[in-house]
Amino acid sequence: MDYKPISAYGAVGNQKTVALVGRDGSVDWCCFPHVENASVFARILDAERGGHFTVQPAGSFSSTQRYVPRTNVLETRFQTATGQATLTDFMPVPDAIRDEGVPNGTLLRKVTCTHGRLDLKVEFEPRFDYARTVPTVETTDHGVVTTGNNESLSLSTPLPLRVDGASAEALTMLEEGETRWLVAGYGHEPEIRPDAHQTLLERVVDRWQDWVDIGLDRRNDPVGGYWQDVVVRSALTLKLLIHDDTGTICAAPTTSLPEDIGGIRNWDYRFNWIRDSAFTVRALSELGHVDEAKEYFDTCLRHCADNDPADVQPVFGLHGDTDLEEETLEHLSGYQGSRPVRVGNSAADQTQLDVYGELIHGVYATAQYGAEITDENWAVMKDLLDYVCGAWSEPDVGIWEMRDDPQQFVYSNVMCWVALDRGIAIVEETEFDGDVECWREARRAIKEDVLKYGYDEDVGSFVQAYDNRILDATSLLIPILGFLPADDERVQSTIDATLDRITTNGLVARYEGNDGLPGEEGAFVMCSFWLVTALSLSGRITEARETFRQVMRYASPQGLLAEEVDPATGELLGNYPQAFSHIGLINAALHLQEAETDADDPSASATTGAKQSSGVNTSTRAERER
């Protein structure tokens, strides 16, 4: 069978796991009980053996997909020659689970014939442990139960299911106004209770909409201005990827969706990257969700506290696990033949010096929005700052996790500068102490070093590393992070060089040249939003607005973004939906909104969103005891 485009999938979840539902009504990817566990459905990675759960009209049909407004409840609408139907997919969110007593690991599917009549087809074909286990299937009073690999997945439905080997199927006719429920339960067998299921659906819709409204109510103006709808969709996607148990953020709920169709650039993103922190905080906090930002940083700092500063892993598991050994699943053919399929990620063992700056910057920024820095937080941060003070000049593999020899990356040094700069600011604005003189001296040395060796006059741009002349999109972050002001000539020439050399139709590549891996990759969505932000800060509003519009043309019909876009075809590439891309969208929209506001009213504050505190919010142990 043909593989669907990545953009043909919507995502539903319960803040513990995520299922990808195709526009054809097929669940082609889902892991239980958590997103980092082995898959139960993986047809997106192997059309023949991966497993799926399909609900769709029999015969020919067309379909569209959309979310219930301001929710992560997905609707797929089918049209046949004889009728129309709507398939609604959702998982109960944590507070609805607690209120309604619904077990975790429940996927509910409601199909209603809205016009005429049609024949409905159901295929239920779980394949446990990344399709390494073909289950046994048995009928029950409520439907069927499949077992294998010490796991079970049940399907409860009033439809008459027929067992066929290692799968179950049904065929029935729906008349106008008729509704059928199909409920999958991991490790449990649900009962079919239509009234209770409908009540649960309404509760889940209310919970998602309440979460959005709480954030919007804290603002005095539309978030993202003209782009509010796509900003809200990105916020909901980000919330879907925040693990409810730990507050960690899943970079994406999938593994091995390729950056190069048919190639080997296939990675597992079902983990928490510390570097996402610096970009996440503004996105969450500006949308009124400071608590999520604070919980995320607490988790990252606890991870750092358990390790020597030199041994901090840049990526770790959603439950804090550090063993992310990379494994190849040889039995899976990969999306459109893109092999290998990988689980685990060896980037966990790399040295990436930029993560220290991103973490410290993120904590400092969160404090500007009212979150507190505790004694325990500061003790960890101070150790990290002392380490950066001596380690900044060492080579590393950089933000792009190069799998070749370490280099002196410009962005890594800039982020070390950011770490020290924010650490110094915290000491200056609070009663916390630290080796500020050492930090100031290192901050000065880093800046001199970067300006001397990181900017190439002949290229007219900041470059990727001290020993090359390669353009790198991370240079766009220099004004965003405050390393240099946006009106600095070197910043403006870097933006111009980026537009000229690594940008196509608003899509920005990560960098120029060969990175040591075979094949090519698409343009990186986050980098495109960095360009929007850099242009906005520069007052180049028309260019920023047009770039934002160009990038948004590549979002899926459901408003979701993958990691990359193929500039030649416009197809989404890489793992999906990608937190980094949606974080970039939110931040770019906010910066663009601020720039437009300032252009209309020069006296307006540079920050038009959620009100920030005037300084760092701290809480010492003695103050809390009082």
UniProtKB/TrEMBL annotation:
Gene3D superfamilies, per database record: 1.50.10.10
Listed Polar residues bias regions: 604-620
Segments for region (Disordered): 596-626
Domain Trehalase-like N-terminal: 5-158
Pfam family, one: TREH_N
GO molecular function: hydrolase activity
InterPro entries assigned to the protein according to its UniProt record, in alphabetical order: 6-hairpin_glycosidase_sf, 6hp_glycosidase-like_sf, GH15-like, Trehalase-like_N
Keyword flag Protease: no
Superkingdom of the source species: Archaea
Domain (GH15-like) ranges: 228-589
Keywords: Hydrolase
Family in the record: Belongs to the glycosyl hydrolase 15 family.
Protein name listed in UniProt: Glycoside hydrolase family 15 protein
